[in-house]
Every structure is written in C-alpha cells, then in structure tokens.
C-alpha cells in the first residue's frame, strides 16, 4: 500500500462535486432535497475553499454494475435500473417506490454517481494520490445489499471500503456520526474482521431504523468489529462530544486502520426536522476536527470524509459541511467567519429564506472527558458505559479506564 504522507505530486485533499449530483432527487416534498448539496458547494466556493492550495475539486462518473455488485445483489441493481427507467416498475420488496425511497427517472445513474465519487476518492487514498478525500454528496449508510432504505439507494461508503480493501488496504475503520444508526454499512461488514464500524447515534427506541444497540457487535468471525453507541433523545453538545470522545478514538487507535472513513450526517443538529438530538454546528465542527486529528494519529493521515443525513438545508447542512471541507484542507475556518454576502443573497432570492450571519451557532462546544468519572444518574453516561463494557474488552481495552 502506498505511503500517504509526503508523496510528490499528491493532492492535500480532493473534494467531489459536480452539479450532476443534484440529480439525486426524490421529489419536491422529500426531506432529502438536492438544494442542500448545491448550497453547500456554493458556500464552499464563495468562501474560497475550493481555490485553496492543495485542494482539488473533481467530478465523478456513475459506478458501473460490476462495481455496484461488490456491495449490492445483482437482482437489486437490476430492480433499481428498471425503476429508474420506469418508476412504475419500482418494487417495494427492494425498498423502492416507498415513501422514504420513491423511484424517480434517472435514479440508478444518480445513485451510482455518488458511489463512483466515493470509490474514486478511496482508491486515490490507497494509491497515495491524495491524503484526504471529501464527498459531502455521499454517506448513504442505510442502503443494504438487497434493498434501498432511509433515502439511500446505493451504499457509497461500503463500496469505497470494499474498493480500498481490494486495492491493498488491510484494515479500515468506519466512524458514523449521523443521527441515525449506520445500519447498512454495518450490515455489509458485519462478519468481516478487516473493517471496524463504529456508529454514534440517537437510540433506536426513538428513531429510525430502530437498531444500533450496545449488544450488536458483529458476526461470529468478527465479534467486536461492530460497535454501537445509542444516545438518548435530547442529547446536546456536551453529551454528544463526550460520547464520541469516550468511545471512538480508543477503538480506532486499537484497531490501527490503514484508512479512516467517517460519515458526517448533520441531522444531529437541534434544528433538524427528523432527529431528536440537539447538537450545534459548533459541536459538529469540533467532531470533524477530532476525526481529522485521529486520522493523522491512527491511519497516517488517510481520511475519507463523507456527508450523510441533514435536512435543515440552509442553516445547518451548508455550514457544517463547509467546515468539514475547510478542516480537510488543513485550514479550519474561524467560527465567527461571516457568511459571504453573495451566498446569503442567493439563498434569499431563490428560497425566500433568511440565513445565519456567521459560520457559528455561538455555542462553546465544550465537554468533559470520560476521565472525569462515570455518573450513573446521567443517561448519556449510562449509554457510554454500556457500549464500552460491551465492546472494549473485545479490543483489549479496559472499559472503566481506557
């Protein structure tokens, strides 16, 4: 596997973007509105992030059937193609034509393009052609081998991980910070000891997909390779960041992956209409910085960062993912950075919406680390300890002290 540090001619970060990604469009009233991607890209451009030294913006071609079948069943891919050509052919047995995943013309190509973008980045990371890759259009973590689920048709994260393994990576860690359990990606690698999946999410007792509890630990050949931290509804910045830092770094360091893949669904935000966590843009920015630092500590800097959920399309998604791109470019944005007048004017003209004025929610995004001690009266601490006690011993870690 190529060394991803200090390689001549290497990009510091590749960002996948092209207007073609907005063709992933379930319809006017669907929560996953493609305008969230357009506004993110516009904000990145207006902030000058795409023009920074070392940043390369690349498009992507749709993944071909052979690549899609590295993750998805042949029959399912054929069903998506049929529904894409004629949405009346959608079959609910494959999760298509449902309220969550309505079929639309061109669906196969649009979803396959997202896969192509993430796979291209993954291959570039393994080959040493880039150090960091960002596909904020990706992170479709609910799609399973045989069905669509939760707004996700094809699972680009899983396809990128498979591609990297085939290109020579020996071990890959996947960390999912979406409000929803990363069930599809976990399912693909449930019994694969080469891949560690860690998902920090709102509890399935209060949110789709109803899974992702501490005792879900992977298959018989990979027990401990799946780790889940289910947080109570209402968890805010301090609890969420405490949870992430109490579980993720320890496991990733112990696993020692060749590449770190992270999913940054920002539906954890307090304004998101679908989730029940109360996290700020500031905490999401802090988490992105932590994942970046962890990649440099544990995987020689090789970091593939993906988007995911996020349905507050003006106040939350563009700012969160612009911070992610800035972080990956090694030049984080000051939270007090004003939003460009050009971007604000575009939003007001096209969506008739007022916008925030800066890149911050004004929250300190501070937390107390696990070393402060366990509080049995705190629901977040109880969730953290359940996960640590279930998973840490399987990785040679002490759940009470590491």
Automatic annotation (TrEMBL):
Q: SUPFAM superfamilies, alphabetically?
A: Arginase/deacetylase
**Listed name of the protein:** Acetoin utilization protein AcuC
Q: Give the keywords, sorted.
A: Acetoin catabolism
Q: Does the keyword Membrane apply?
A: no
Q: Which family does it belong to?
A: Belongs to the histone deacetylase family.
| PANTHER family for this protein | HISTONE DEACETYLASE HDAC1, HISTONE DEACETYLASE HDAC1-RELATED
Q: Tell me the Gene3D superfamilies matching this sequence.
A: Histone deacetylase domain
Q: Where is the Histone deacetylase domain?
A: 30-326
Signal peptide start and end residues: none
Q: In which pathway does it act?
A: Ketone degradation; acetoin degradation
The answer, when asked if Nucleotide-binding is one of the entry's keywords, is no
Q: Which InterPro entries match?
A: AcuC, HDACs, His_deacetylse_dom, His_deacetylse_dom_sf, Ureohydrolase_dom_sf
